[in-house]
Write a structure and sequence with these properties.
Layout (H helix, E strand, L loop, with lengths): L20 H11 L5 H15 L4 E7 L5 E6 L5 H10 L21 E3 L7 H4 L2 H7 L6 E8 L5 E9 L8 H24 L7 E2 L19 E3 L5 E5 L5 E4 L3 H9 L4 H5 L1 H13 L9 E8 L2 E10 L10 E11 H10 L5 H11 L4 H8 L3 H15 L4 H15 L1
Antiparallel strand pairs: 1-2, 1-5, 3-4, 4-5, 6-10, 7-12, 8-9, 8-12, 10-11, 11-12
Length: 403
Protein backbone atom coordinates (compact mmCIF):
# COMPACT_ATOMS: atom_id res chain seq x y z
CA UNK A 1 0.00 0.00 0.00
CA UNK A 2 1.24 3.47 -0.84
CA UNK A 3 -0.11 4.93 2.38
CA UNK A 4 1.99 6.47 5.12
CA UNK A 5 1.67 7.41 8.75
CA UNK A 6 0.12 10.88 8.65
CA UNK A 7 2.05 11.97 11.77
CA UNK A 8 5.31 12.23 9.84
CA UNK A 9 6.22 14.75 7.15
CA UNK A 10 9.37 15.96 5.40
CA UNK A 11 9.39 19.71 4.84
CA UNK A 12 13.01 20.87 4.68
CA UNK A 13 13.74 24.44 3.61
CA UNK A 14 15.46 23.98 0.27
CA UNK A 15 16.88 26.60 -2.05
CA UNK A 16 18.71 24.53 -4.65
CA UNK A 17 17.24 24.32 -8.14
CA UNK A 18 18.79 20.84 -8.37
CA UNK A 19 16.62 19.46 -5.56
CA UNK A 20 13.04 18.67 -6.58
CA UNK A 21 10.94 19.67 -3.58
CA UNK A 22 7.83 18.10 -5.11
CA UNK A 23 9.58 14.75 -5.63
CA UNK A 24 11.08 14.97 -2.14
CA UNK A 25 7.62 15.43 -0.65
CA UNK A 26 6.35 12.43 -2.63
CA UNK A 27 9.05 10.08 -1.33
CA UNK A 28 7.41 9.15 2.01
CA UNK A 29 4.57 7.44 0.14
CA UNK A 30 7.14 5.04 -1.30
CA UNK A 31 9.40 4.81 1.74
CA UNK A 32 6.46 4.07 4.02
CA UNK A 33 4.86 1.42 1.82
CA UNK A 34 6.10 -1.56 3.86
CA UNK A 35 8.18 -3.04 1.02
CA UNK A 36 10.57 -5.89 1.76
CA UNK A 37 14.18 -4.62 1.81
CA UNK A 38 15.00 -6.38 -1.46
CA UNK A 39 12.22 -4.42 -3.17
CA UNK A 40 12.56 -1.26 -1.10
CA UNK A 41 16.22 -0.43 -1.78
CA UNK A 42 16.08 -0.59 -5.62
CA UNK A 43 12.93 1.55 -5.58
CA UNK A 44 14.54 4.03 -3.21
CA UNK A 45 17.75 4.38 -5.24
CA UNK A 46 15.77 4.92 -8.43
CA UNK A 47 13.43 7.50 -6.92
CA UNK A 48 16.32 9.44 -5.37
CA UNK A 49 17.59 10.33 -8.86
CA UNK A 50 14.48 12.48 -9.28
CA UNK A 51 15.15 14.29 -6.00
CA UNK A 52 18.94 14.64 -6.11
CA UNK A 53 20.48 14.10 -9.56
CA UNK A 54 23.28 11.53 -9.48
CA UNK A 55 25.03 9.11 -11.80
CA UNK A 56 24.78 5.97 -9.70
CA UNK A 57 23.43 5.08 -6.27
CA UNK A 58 24.39 2.36 -3.79
CA UNK A 59 23.23 1.00 -0.45
CA UNK A 60 25.46 -0.99 1.92
CA UNK A 61 23.59 -3.15 4.42
CA UNK A 62 25.60 -3.48 7.63
CA UNK A 63 25.28 -5.05 11.04
CA UNK A 64 25.25 -2.91 14.18
CA UNK A 65 29.06 -3.11 14.39
CA UNK A 66 29.57 -1.65 10.92
CA UNK A 67 30.46 -4.90 9.14
CA UNK A 68 29.25 -5.17 5.53
CA UNK A 69 26.57 -7.82 5.12
CA UNK A 70 25.67 -7.25 1.48
CA UNK A 71 25.05 -4.33 -0.85
CA UNK A 72 22.91 -3.21 -3.76
CA UNK A 73 24.30 -0.97 -6.48
CA UNK A 74 22.77 0.34 -9.68
CA UNK A 75 24.33 -0.65 -12.97
CA UNK A 76 26.84 -3.36 -13.87
CA UNK A 77 29.31 -4.69 -11.31
CA UNK A 78 32.87 -5.15 -12.53
CA UNK A 79 33.78 -8.25 -10.53
CA UNK A 80 37.49 -7.66 -11.12
CA UNK A 81 37.35 -4.16 -9.61
CA UNK A 82 35.10 -5.41 -6.81
CA UNK A 83 37.53 -8.21 -5.95
CA UNK A 84 40.45 -5.77 -6.04
CA UNK A 85 38.64 -3.36 -3.72
CA UNK A 86 37.67 -5.96 -1.14
CA UNK A 87 41.08 -7.63 -1.19
CA UNK A 88 43.25 -4.52 -0.95
CA UNK A 89 41.19 -1.47 0.09
CA UNK A 90 38.15 -2.43 2.17
CA UNK A 91 39.06 -1.44 5.74
CA UNK A 92 42.68 -1.40 4.61
CA UNK A 93 44.27 1.03 2.14
CA UNK A 94 41.12 3.15 1.81
CA UNK A 95 41.96 4.58 5.24
CA UNK A 96 44.93 6.36 3.62
CA UNK A 97 42.59 8.85 1.93
CA UNK A 98 39.10 8.56 3.43
CA UNK A 99 37.31 7.08 6.45
CA UNK A 100 37.51 3.29 6.38
CA UNK A 101 34.26 1.41 5.92
CA UNK A 102 34.30 0.16 9.51
CA UNK A 103 34.26 3.77 10.74
CA UNK A 104 30.49 3.66 10.16
CA UNK A 105 30.22 1.90 13.52
CA UNK A 106 31.20 5.12 15.31
CA UNK A 107 29.62 7.62 12.89
CA UNK A 108 26.33 9.23 13.96
CA UNK A 109 23.35 9.15 11.64
CA UNK A 110 23.49 11.92 9.05
CA UNK A 111 25.30 12.96 5.89
CA UNK A 112 28.99 12.71 5.13
CA UNK A 113 29.73 15.62 2.83
CA UNK A 114 31.40 15.29 -0.55
CA UNK A 115 33.77 18.17 0.14
CA UNK A 116 36.46 16.38 2.23
CA UNK A 117 37.16 14.04 -0.71
CA UNK A 118 37.28 16.73 -3.39
CA UNK A 119 41.01 17.30 -2.99
CA UNK A 120 44.14 16.61 -5.06
CA UNK A 121 45.26 14.14 -2.40
CA UNK A 122 42.15 12.00 -2.88
CA UNK A 123 42.15 12.23 -6.67
CA UNK A 124 45.81 11.13 -6.72
CA UNK A 125 45.18 8.25 -4.32
CA UNK A 126 45.30 4.58 -5.29
CA UNK A 127 41.68 4.18 -4.23
CA UNK A 128 40.51 6.83 -6.69
CA UNK A 129 42.80 5.76 -9.53
CA UNK A 130 42.21 2.00 -9.23
CA UNK A 131 38.62 1.78 -7.97
CA UNK A 132 36.66 5.00 -8.49
CA UNK A 133 38.01 6.33 -11.77
CA UNK A 134 37.65 3.10 -13.82
CA UNK A 135 33.96 3.05 -12.85
CA UNK A 136 33.40 6.71 -13.78
CA UNK A 137 32.97 7.81 -10.14
CA UNK A 138 34.31 11.19 -9.05
CA UNK A 139 32.42 12.49 -6.02
CA UNK A 140 29.86 11.24 -3.53
CA UNK A 141 27.64 12.12 -0.63
CA UNK A 142 26.93 9.43 1.94
CA UNK A 143 24.01 9.04 4.30
CA UNK A 144 24.64 7.02 7.45
CA UNK A 145 21.34 5.32 8.27
CA UNK A 146 20.47 4.62 11.90
CA UNK A 147 17.14 3.76 13.45
CA UNK A 148 15.37 5.76 16.16
CA UNK A 149 17.40 3.96 18.84
CA UNK A 150 20.65 4.80 17.10
CA UNK A 151 21.38 1.32 15.77
CA UNK A 152 23.31 1.29 12.49
CA UNK A 153 21.39 -0.10 9.51
CA UNK A 154 23.60 0.84 6.58
CA UNK A 155 25.06 3.46 4.29
CA UNK A 156 23.33 5.22 1.37
CA UNK A 157 25.77 6.61 -1.22
CA UNK A 158 25.04 8.87 -4.20
CA UNK A 159 27.81 9.16 -6.81
CA UNK A 160 28.52 11.66 -9.57
CA UNK A 161 30.96 11.50 -12.45
CA UNK A 162 33.88 13.76 -13.40
CA UNK A 163 31.74 15.93 -15.70
CA UNK A 164 28.98 16.44 -13.14
CA UNK A 165 28.58 19.43 -10.84
CA UNK A 166 29.66 18.95 -7.22
CA UNK A 167 26.99 18.07 -4.69
CA UNK A 168 25.65 21.20 -3.02
CA UNK A 169 24.87 21.88 0.63
CA UNK A 170 21.16 21.92 -0.24
CA UNK A 171 21.44 18.47 -1.79
CA UNK A 172 23.18 17.21 1.33
CA UNK A 173 20.33 18.71 3.36
CA UNK A 174 17.78 16.92 1.19
CA UNK A 175 19.56 13.60 1.69
CA UNK A 176 19.59 14.20 5.44
CA UNK A 177 15.81 14.72 5.33
CA UNK A 178 15.36 11.36 3.60
CA UNK A 179 17.46 9.27 6.01
CA UNK A 180 14.88 8.85 8.81
CA UNK A 181 12.42 7.59 6.21
CA UNK A 182 14.98 5.14 4.87
CA UNK A 183 15.44 3.72 8.37
CA UNK A 184 11.68 3.47 8.91
CA UNK A 185 11.19 1.86 5.50
CA UNK A 186 13.89 -0.75 6.11
CA UNK A 187 12.53 -1.64 9.53
CA UNK A 188 8.91 -1.82 8.36
CA UNK A 189 9.90 -4.03 5.45
CA UNK A 190 11.97 -6.37 7.62
CA UNK A 191 9.15 -6.68 10.14
CA UNK A 192 6.59 -7.62 7.48
CA UNK A 193 8.88 -9.81 5.33
CA UNK A 194 7.68 -13.42 5.22
CA UNK A 195 9.99 -16.42 5.24
CA UNK A 196 11.04 -17.03 1.65
CA UNK A 197 12.50 -20.01 -0.12
CA UNK A 198 15.69 -19.35 -2.10
CA UNK A 199 14.29 -20.79 -5.31
CA UNK A 200 10.78 -21.70 -6.36
CA UNK A 201 10.28 -23.28 -9.81
CA UNK A 202 7.25 -21.97 -11.64
CA UNK A 203 6.13 -21.44 -15.19
CA UNK A 204 6.08 -17.64 -15.20
CA UNK A 205 3.59 -17.49 -18.07
CA UNK A 206 1.11 -19.91 -16.52
CA UNK A 207 -0.21 -17.65 -13.77
CA UNK A 208 -1.97 -14.53 -15.13
CA UNK A 209 -2.14 -11.38 -12.99
CA UNK A 210 -5.46 -10.51 -11.38
CA UNK A 211 -7.87 -8.61 -13.60
CA UNK A 212 -8.07 -5.64 -11.23
CA UNK A 213 -6.96 -4.33 -7.85
CA UNK A 214 -7.89 -6.54 -4.92
CA UNK A 215 -7.28 -4.95 -1.49
CA UNK A 216 -5.57 -7.38 0.86
CA UNK A 217 -4.50 -9.76 -1.94
CA UNK A 218 -0.94 -10.97 -2.35
CA UNK A 219 1.27 -8.33 -4.01
CA UNK A 220 1.41 -8.32 -7.79
CA UNK A 221 4.84 -8.30 -9.40
CA UNK A 222 5.84 -6.83 -12.75
CA UNK A 223 9.10 -6.86 -14.71
CA UNK A 224 11.30 -4.01 -13.47
CA UNK A 225 12.08 -1.40 -16.15
CA UNK A 226 15.82 -2.17 -16.14
CA UNK A 227 16.94 -4.32 -19.05
CA UNK A 228 17.13 -8.10 -18.85
CA UNK A 229 20.58 -9.71 -18.72
CA UNK A 230 21.72 -12.77 -20.65
CA UNK A 231 24.36 -15.47 -20.25
CA UNK A 232 25.48 -18.08 -22.80
CA UNK A 233 26.57 -21.53 -21.56
CA UNK A 234 28.15 -24.47 -23.35
CA UNK A 235 26.87 -28.04 -23.12
CA UNK A 236 28.80 -28.57 -19.87
CA UNK A 237 27.34 -25.47 -18.24
CA UNK A 238 30.53 -23.45 -18.59
CA UNK A 239 30.03 -19.73 -19.12
CA UNK A 240 30.90 -18.59 -22.65
CA UNK A 241 29.78 -14.96 -22.52
CA UNK A 242 27.44 -12.63 -20.67
CA UNK A 243 26.05 -9.12 -20.85
CA UNK A 244 27.67 -6.45 -18.69
CA UNK A 245 25.08 -6.53 -15.92
CA UNK A 246 24.60 -10.29 -15.80
CA UNK A 247 27.01 -10.95 -12.92
CA UNK A 248 25.27 -8.45 -10.66
CA UNK A 249 21.78 -9.73 -11.41
CA UNK A 250 22.78 -13.39 -11.12
CA UNK A 251 24.42 -12.85 -7.73
CA UNK A 252 21.42 -10.90 -6.47
CA UNK A 253 19.12 -13.71 -7.60
CA UNK A 254 21.18 -16.43 -5.93
CA UNK A 255 22.59 -15.00 -2.72
CA UNK A 256 23.33 -11.30 -2.93
CA UNK A 257 26.34 -9.07 -3.53
CA UNK A 258 28.72 -9.94 -0.72
CA UNK A 259 32.46 -10.07 -0.21
CA UNK A 260 32.37 -13.87 -0.51
CA UNK A 261 30.17 -14.15 -3.61
CA UNK A 262 32.22 -11.58 -5.50
CA UNK A 263 35.49 -13.27 -4.56
CA UNK A 264 34.72 -16.31 -6.74
CA UNK A 265 34.40 -14.37 -10.01
CA UNK A 266 33.51 -16.42 -13.10
CA UNK A 267 33.59 -19.73 -11.21
CA UNK A 268 31.10 -18.30 -8.74
CA UNK A 269 28.74 -17.34 -11.55
CA UNK A 270 28.87 -20.86 -12.99
CA UNK A 271 28.24 -22.35 -9.55
CA UNK A 272 25.28 -20.01 -9.08
CA UNK A 273 23.80 -21.13 -12.40
CA UNK A 274 24.18 -24.77 -11.40
CA UNK A 275 22.34 -24.04 -8.16
CA UNK A 276 19.54 -22.32 -10.05
CA UNK A 277 18.92 -25.10 -12.54
CA UNK A 278 20.20 -28.00 -10.39
CA UNK A 279 22.27 -29.25 -13.35
CA UNK A 280 19.03 -29.75 -15.26
CA UNK A 281 19.29 -27.49 -18.29
CA UNK A 282 16.55 -27.92 -20.90
CA UNK A 283 17.06 -30.09 -24.01
CA UNK A 284 17.56 -28.49 -27.41
CA UNK A 285 14.47 -26.64 -28.58
CA UNK A 286 12.92 -26.52 -25.12
CA UNK A 287 12.84 -23.85 -22.44
CA UNK A 288 12.58 -23.67 -18.69
CA UNK A 289 11.48 -20.81 -16.46
CA UNK A 290 12.03 -20.36 -12.72
CA UNK A 291 10.98 -17.73 -10.24
CA UNK A 292 13.72 -17.02 -7.69
CA UNK A 293 12.66 -15.41 -4.42
CA UNK A 294 15.10 -14.44 -1.69
CA UNK A 295 15.95 -11.61 0.67
CA UNK A 296 17.36 -9.60 -2.26
CA UNK A 297 14.20 -9.57 -4.34
CA UNK A 298 12.28 -11.59 -6.87
CA UNK A 299 13.69 -12.67 -10.22
CA UNK A 300 12.78 -14.67 -13.31
CA UNK A 301 15.41 -17.01 -14.78
CA UNK A 302 14.65 -18.47 -18.20
CA UNK A 303 16.86 -21.02 -19.95
CA UNK A 304 16.49 -22.00 -23.59
CA UNK A 305 18.65 -24.59 -25.33
CA UNK A 306 20.00 -23.55 -28.73
CA UNK A 307 21.16 -25.70 -31.60
CA UNK A 308 24.86 -25.79 -32.33
CA UNK A 309 26.39 -23.35 -34.77
CA UNK A 310 26.66 -24.31 -38.42
CA UNK A 311 30.37 -25.04 -38.07
CA UNK A 312 29.75 -27.13 -34.92
CA UNK A 313 26.28 -28.73 -35.07
CA UNK A 314 27.13 -31.03 -32.17
CA UNK A 315 27.95 -28.12 -29.84
CA UNK A 316 24.64 -26.98 -28.35
CA UNK A 317 24.51 -23.95 -26.09
CA UNK A 318 22.03 -22.63 -23.55
CA UNK A 319 20.84 -19.03 -23.39
CA UNK A 320 19.88 -17.89 -19.87
CA UNK A 321 17.87 -14.69 -19.46
CA UNK A 322 17.54 -13.00 -16.07
CA UNK A 323 15.10 -10.26 -15.14
CA UNK A 324 14.31 -8.59 -11.84
CA UNK A 325 10.68 -8.19 -10.81
CA UNK A 326 9.20 -5.40 -8.71
CA UNK A 327 5.97 -5.03 -6.73
CA UNK A 328 3.08 -3.38 -8.51
CA UNK A 329 3.14 -0.72 -5.77
CA UNK A 330 6.63 0.38 -6.90
CA UNK A 331 5.58 0.58 -10.55
CA UNK A 332 2.46 2.47 -9.52
CA UNK A 333 4.45 5.04 -7.52
CA UNK A 334 6.82 5.54 -10.46
CA UNK A 335 3.91 6.15 -12.82
CA UNK A 336 2.21 8.56 -10.42
CA UNK A 337 5.41 10.58 -10.00
CA UNK A 338 5.18 11.45 -13.68
CA UNK A 339 1.76 13.05 -13.21
CA UNK A 340 1.10 16.61 -11.95
CA UNK A 341 0.11 15.55 -8.43
CA UNK A 342 1.00 16.81 -4.98
CA UNK A 343 2.27 14.37 -2.36
CA UNK A 344 -1.17 14.08 -0.77
CA UNK A 345 -2.89 13.62 -4.13
CA UNK A 346 -0.37 10.93 -5.09
CA UNK A 347 -1.24 8.88 -2.01
CA UNK A 348 -4.98 9.18 -2.59
CA UNK A 349 -4.63 8.39 -6.29
CA UNK A 350 -2.57 5.28 -5.50
CA UNK A 351 -5.15 4.08 -2.99
CA UNK A 352 -7.99 4.60 -5.47
CA UNK A 353 -6.12 2.59 -8.09
CA UNK A 354 -5.53 -0.16 -5.52
CA UNK A 355 -9.27 -0.54 -4.99
CA UNK A 356 -9.92 1.57 -1.89
CA UNK A 357 -12.87 3.94 -1.55
CA UNK A 358 -12.80 7.44 -0.03
CA UNK A 359 -13.96 6.31 3.42
CA UNK A 360 -11.35 3.56 3.57
CA UNK A 361 -8.61 5.94 2.43
CA UNK A 362 -9.57 8.46 5.11
CA UNK A 363 -9.36 5.76 7.77
CA UNK A 364 -6.04 4.38 6.52
CA UNK A 365 -4.46 7.83 6.29
CA UNK A 366 -5.96 9.16 9.49
CA UNK A 367 -7.49 12.21 7.80
CA UNK A 368 -10.99 13.60 7.44
CA UNK A 369 -13.27 12.15 4.78
CA UNK A 370 -13.71 15.66 3.37
CA UNK A 371 -9.94 15.93 2.88
CA UNK A 372 -9.90 12.79 0.76
CA UNK A 373 -12.89 13.99 -1.27
CA UNK A 374 -11.13 17.30 -1.90
CA UNK A 375 -8.00 15.45 -3.06
CA UNK A 376 -10.09 13.34 -5.44
CA UNK A 377 -11.77 16.41 -6.91
CA UNK A 378 -8.39 18.04 -7.54
CA UNK A 379 -6.93 14.82 -8.97
CA UNK A 380 -9.78 14.56 -11.48
CA UNK A 381 -9.29 18.18 -12.50
CA UNK A 382 -5.50 17.88 -12.81
CA UNK A 383 -5.70 14.73 -14.93
CA UNK A 384 -8.82 15.57 -16.92
CA UNK A 385 -10.80 12.51 -15.81
CA UNK A 386 -14.30 12.16 -14.39
CA UNK A 387 -14.37 8.82 -12.59
CA UNK A 388 -12.23 6.27 -10.78
CA UNK A 389 -12.46 4.04 -13.86
CA UNK A 390 -11.06 6.78 -16.10
CA UNK A 391 -8.41 7.58 -13.50
CA UNK A 392 -7.21 3.98 -13.27
CA UNK A 393 -7.17 3.69 -17.05
CA UNK A 394 -5.00 6.83 -17.25
CA UNK A 395 -2.61 5.45 -14.61
CA UNK A 396 -2.43 2.04 -16.30
CA UNK A 397 -1.41 3.88 -19.45
CA UNK A 398 1.46 5.49 -17.56
CA UNK A 399 2.40 2.08 -16.17
CA UNK A 400 2.60 0.56 -19.64
CA UNK A 401 4.89 3.37 -20.78
CA UNK A 402 7.29 2.83 -17.87
CA UNK A 403 7.45 -0.90 -18.61
Amino acid sequence: MLLIDSRFTMTPMLRSHNVSKRRLAQLPALLGAGLAPGDFIPALLEALHEVIPSARNLFDHTDAQGRLLHYYVEGPVDDGIAQHYFEHFHNRREADCMPAFQSLALTPGGVRSARPLMTPAFYNSALYQEIWKPQGLHSRIEGVVRDARGQLLGSLVLYRGPEDAPFSADEEQALAAVLPWVARGLQAGMASQPLMSPCRPRDAAAVPPPAGPVPGAAPRYLPAPEQAETLLLDAQGQLLSATAGAARLLLLATGGLTIDTLADGRAGMEAALRRVFASDLPPVGRGRSLTLINAHGRFIAEARALQGARDCPGCPTTLVTLRRLEPHAVALHRALRQLPLTAGQLQVCAALCQGHGPAGIAQLQGVAHSTVVDHIRKIYRALGVGSVHELCRRVEGELSVSH
